[in-house]
Specification:
The chain contains eight helices and 14 strands. The chain has 458 residues and is an alpha+beta fold. A five-stranded mixed sheet has the order 4-3-2-5-9. Strands 10, 11, 12, 13 and 14 form a five-stranded antiparallel sheet that branches. The longest helix is centred in the middle third of the chain and has 70 residues. 13% of the residues are buried.
Length: 458
Amino acid sequence: MNDSITASDNIAPLTNTSPLSAFGQWWLGELRALVPSRLINWAVGDVAVTDVMVDMSSITLVRVEAGKPVPSVSVPGAEVMTHPLLRELRAKGHGQVRVLLGADQVLQKSISLPAAIEENLRDVMGFELDRHTPFMAGQAYYDVKLQRRDPQRETIEVLLSVASRTVVDPLLAMVRQAGLAVEGIGVATPAAGLAVELLPANDKPARKWGNLPRLNLALLVAGISLGLLALLLPIWQKREAVITLNPLVGKVSADYDASQRVHEEYTKLVGEYNYITGKKQSMHSSLAILEELTRISPDTTVAQNMDLKFNGKTRDVTVIGEAQAASKVIEALEQSPLFQNATQRSPSRKGSLGTNEWFHVATEVKPKALPSATVFGENPPEPVVAPPVPTPVPAAGLMPSAGEPAAKAPNGNAPAAAATPAKTDVSTVTVVPVPAKPGAVFAEPAAMPAPGATRKQP
C-alpha cells in the first residue's frame, strides 16, 4: 500500500532539524543519561514509552537496533495479564506503549498541495481525505508530514499516512485489555524516514507528571521568597543603621541647642556692649551739622533760629532766617551729602531789607554709616601710635631758674613758649561683630572699661 515518492530536480528537500537543534537534542540526551532513572521518574513521572507490535494472537515487544525496530519478546494473547514481563512493566508504572503498524496496514502516499495551507495542514487534510484515500476522516487514523517545499511553484510536498480504524481498533483493544495505555500509533518502517503519529491528541491518555508540579511550585515559592528577601533586606539594613545613628543624632542636636543658646547670649552681650558706640557712630555730631549748614549756606543767608531735635528714629533740623531766595536754601540742603528731604514749613515773605525773603525750612539728617567691623583673632593688631614731636632744648643761659622770670628775647619781646609735645590721638573704636551663624569663629568681646578709666573716643 506504499506509493512511491518521486522528487523533481527543482524541488528542495526539507530539512527537519537544524544542526544547532540536533546538537541540543544530543546534548540533552547525554545529560539525561547521567541522571538516574528513578530521579527522573520521581520528578516528571512516567516518560518511558515501550514500542510493541500487535496482531490478533500476540503482543510483541520491540527494541530498536541501528534505527530499525527488532522484535524481542512475544507474549501470547492469553498470557498478557499473567506474563511476568508485562506485569513488571505495569508494576513499575511503565505501562505506556506505542503500537507499531506494519507496512501492509498503512497507506502512505505523496501529495502536492498549495503552500498556503501549510499552517493548517492536518485540518485541511481531514476535509480532503476522501479525495485522496478510500476513507473518510472519521473512518481512519491519519497523519500528514511535510517533505519538501517548491518556492517557485508555491507548492509543498507532503506524506499522507492513513490506517483504517476497522483494522487498528481491535489491536488497540487488545493492548488496553493487557492493562497497557496506548501512547501513540506509529509505522514500523516509515517512508522517507519520517516519524508518523496516527493517534489524535484527543485520544491519548493523560500524562502522569509525577512530582514535577510540586517541584515547580517549590521553585516558584523559593523564587518569590528570594525576591522578597532582596526587597526587604536593604530596608532592614537601613533601619538598623538609623537605630545606630539615633543616639549620635540626639547628641549632635543637644550640642547644637547649646551652641545656639551660647550664640544668642553672645549676640545679646555684643548688642549691649556696642549700643552706646553704635548710637554715637551712627549720628553726626551737632558741631558737624552746624559746620555743614555754614558751608552750604549762601553768603547772603542770615539764620536767626536753628533747632536740632529727634523725631522718632530720625533727627530733624529746622532753620529760620533771611536769604536772597528761599529756594536757594532748599536747593543747597538737597545737594548736601548730610541732609535729605528738605521742605519749606511756611510760605516765604519779604525780609527786613525788602530784597531778602524770610524762610522756614526743615530737613532730615542722614544716618551716618557705621565703620567696618574688625574681628580680632589670637593676635589683635596693635594701634598705630604717632611718634612724639621732639621738644627743642633752649640755648645755654636762656633757661630761667626757679622763681625768676624768663629772659627776654633780643628783640625785646617775650620769649617764645617752649614747644610742648603734640598730643597723639591713639583712640580707636572697637566694634565686636556678631557671627553670621552658630559655630562661626569670633573673638571674645573686649573687656568693659573700668570705672574712672578714660574711654577711647574717635
